[in-house]
Amino acid sequence: MNLDFGTTLIGAISAVICVTPFVLVTRSVKKKEKEMLRSLTDFADRDNCKINEHEYVGDFIIGMDTNKKVVFFYKEERNEIEKLSVDLKDVKSCKASKIGKSVRNNGKVEQTIERIELVFTTKPAAGRDVVFELFNTQNNLQLNGELQTAEKWAKMVNDIV
Questions:
Q1: How far is residue 113 CA from its own chain's centroid?
Q2: 1 burial type by CB count under 10 A (0-12 exposed, 13-18 middle, 19+ buried)
Q3: Where, by residue number, does the polypeptide cross the bilayer (predicted)?
Q4: Is residue 2 over pLDDT 80?
C-alpha cells in the first residue's frame, strides 16, 4: 500500500498541531516553577539557608533547608506575594487542615473543601502558630494536589520535630 506525499504531509502537520499545545503548556509550567524556585531560594538566602527539598504546586512553592530545619513558603496570587518561613526548632507539631462545609445535594450530604492549610503549632515561647494557606476557593476553582502536598509536608515536618 503506497501513501502519497500529500497524505503523509497532512498527517505530519496534524500531528504537530496536536502535540504543540502540550509542549507549550509543559514549557510554561517548567518556566513558572523555575521562577518561583528562584524567588523561594532568594527568600531563603536572606536567612542564610539553602533549599534542599521543594515542591511546586500551581501558585505556590514550599521548600526546606534540611540542615538548618527551616521551612519556606512562597505564593503568588493576583499580583500579591506571600512569603513565610518557620524555624522547626520552634515547632511542636504540624498538621494539614481541611476547612470546609457540608452541602445537601439531592438528599445526599457532600463535603466541600473551602481552604487547605498547613498549620505549624509552635512552642509557647515562640509566639503564635504559623499558617501556610495552600488553597482557598476564593482564589482557586479546583484542587490541584494541594491536599496531598499538605499531608506530605505535615508528615515530613512531624518526622523532624
A1: 16
A2: exposed
A3: 6-26
A4: no
* 104, 121 Cβ separation under 8 angstroms: no
Give the model confidence (pLDDT) of 71-89 as tens digits: 999 998 878 899 999 999 9
Q: How far is CA 151 from CA 74, 84, 116, 148, in A?
A: 18, 18, 10, 5
Please state, in angstroms and rounded to a whole number, the distance separating the CA atoms of residues 11 and 19: 12
Residue 18: count other Cβ atoms within 10 Å of its Cβ: 9
For the entire predicted model, the pTM comes to 0.81
User: Residue 1 above 60 pLDDT?
Assistant: no
Q: What span, in angstroms and rounded, lies between the C-alpha atoms of 94 and 152? A: 11
H or E element, residue 99: strand 91-105
- The x, y and z cell numbers of residue 63, run together, are 521548600
Is 111 a residue whose pLDDT tops 70? yes
